[in-house]
Amino acid sequence: MARRVLVVNPNTSPEVTEAYLAAARAVAPDDVVLTGVTGRFGARIVTIEAENIIAGHSALDLVAEHVGGHDAVILAISFDTGLAALRSVLGVPVVGISEAALQVASAGGRRPGVVFFGEISRTLYASVLERNGIVPAGMVAIEIGGASDYLSPEAKDAAVLDASLRLAAEGAEAVVIFGAAIVGMAARIEARSSVPIFDGVEAVAACLGAMASHRPRPAVRPLSESVGLSPSLTRLLNGDLR
Question: Coiled-coil region(s) at which residues (predicted)?
Fold first, then answer.
């Protein structure tokens, strides 16, 4: 029987969804069916906290509408936006792409360094690291000229490799590249690196492991009603999603 995974991108760039799906399908077993959905409102590429809050609403809305018939969810946004909220209301496993990459990179006590795109997002990525209990060996920002630049990741391979080599020289024992659109970059450049490199494609293996060990637990339900939400999100919060 096929295992069905919903890939949720609360950015509003379908190119990001397709890029993640392509990389994830390349490593997923044949019996895993990956279906992607893209945000309908909010930023094309989230870079600041205000956009990230909006993306959290988008993630909940997308999952509420599309999760039916799926066995797990992969959250394909590099800030793992809405991860805790989704886990609190869903009965299936939810995996964040950055959480998954950090867990693998830090396995065995390794101290990873991280590479991310856009200095403007440093505080958001620092929050991701803090939530995962990671004190990085270093954080290197690769500047981008906007959404279109970010959506052309191959052009950044050399810069990311250079950043990874610098992090290794500073003591990093592994490197994590943050970003949903750049998934697959680690595989392209790792052979030229002196330390292992990981990215969000690690979420596929993490998701399969979570499905195998998942034990449903009671969802957290609100004490009062909400107004103005989509019908599917209202049903999800109330525990009667069909």
Answer: none
Determine the residue type at 127: S
pLDDT tens-digit map of 113-135: 999 999 999 999 999 999 999 99
Residue 159 has a CB neighbour count (10 Å cut-off) of 14
**Contact status, residue 19 vs residue 180, Cβ threshold 8 Å:** yes
Give every CB contact of residue 191 below 8 A, 6+ residues apart in sequence: none
Instruction: Specify the 3-state DSSP secondary structure of 21.
Output: helix
Amino acid at 138: G
Residue 117 φ/ψ region, left for φ over 0, alpha for ψ in the -120 to 50 degree band, beta for the rest: beta
Q: How far apart are CA 175 and CA 46, in angstroms?
A: 22
Number of domains in the chain: 2
Distance CA 163, CA 3 (A): 37
DSSP code, position 182? T
Q: How far is the CA of 26 from the CAs of 73, 104, 157, in angstroms?
A: 18, 19, 19
Radius of gyration (Cα) for the chain, nearest Å?
Answer: 17
60-95 core/surface letters (b: 16 or more CB in 10 A; e: else): bbbbbbbbeebbbbbbbbbbbbbbebbbebbebbbb
165 and 113 assigned to the same domain: yes
Are residue 68 and residue 29 in the same domain, yes or no?
yes
Residue-range definition of the domain harbouring residue 184: 107-198
Output the domain CATH number for residue 119: 3.40.50.1860
